[in-house]
Amino acid sequence: MTIHCLGSINVDHVYRVPHLPVAGETLSDTSYAVGLGGKGTNQAIAAVRAGGDLRLIGAVGQDGAWVRERLEAAGLDLSQVARVEAATGHAVIYVDEAGENVIVIHGGANRAIPEDTVMAAVDAARPGDWWLTQNETNAVRSSTMEAKRRGLRTVHVAAPFDAAATAPLLPYLDLLAVNEGEAMALAAYLNVAVESLPVPSLLMTLGARGALWRDAHGATTVPAFAVEPVDTTGAGDTFLGYALAGLDGGLPPADALRHAAAAAALSVMREGASAAIPMRAEVDAFLEDQR
After folding, report:
1. What is the pTM assigned to this prediction?
2. Which CATH number fits domain 3-289: 3.40.109.10, 3.40.50.1820, 2.40.50.180, 3.40.1190.20?
3. Of the listed 12, 129, 231, 237, which one is catalytic?
């Protein structure tokens, strides 16, 4: 089947710093780089590199010609990526010496994706395809509702986390993807236990402890791989893209998550977001070495 990703497209401005800045502090960087990112873009590239069939739905500004070139070079179909008047979305990312990061996002074109572009993508999808969203674009709720009505399998990544935006989506989701903190915050917002979040399937990343999959058949935990991180930016997106491609390819959740954990481990040993996402052959070789 096909994964249709209504996703953010960002220009990432990445600053390496001795430590993450605190309020009122002026801090000199140790290096600076510009790259391609955005949660939707990262997840889309990860799914493609995992071998998935993916369509990206989004928007760039009139300043986004080079962004489109990079997306095409990454193997993405841009037939449903619009050009709009707003500036291309961008992010300012600080990465410390331990590989941890702080990110500030400007939504720009990601919040101005034409409604007709989004609905044309839903029209083109087939029942059983995946409809993937995050909290970085407009049209998330309307498109998810319509995708569900048409028999698509709906997936929402609740990041950047917003409980008020995520809660109304839950009745229309087949799969909710969150990290542990987001799951706890959403459960508190709904006044339920994490185990009782009202979705058919839950994918919860647990940081260094791995990830958990929960559905009607029970719960499965997959451990993370111990590696020395260089940059954790985009690791969660790499995990999600690989996991979804694995599920779409027929892998059981435990196997899909193991491949995703390997991909995420490789990504954190490299700098950047989309540039750090490994190819499927690299993931397979890494897993073979773990036996």
Report:
1. 0.92
2. 3.40.1190.20
3. 237
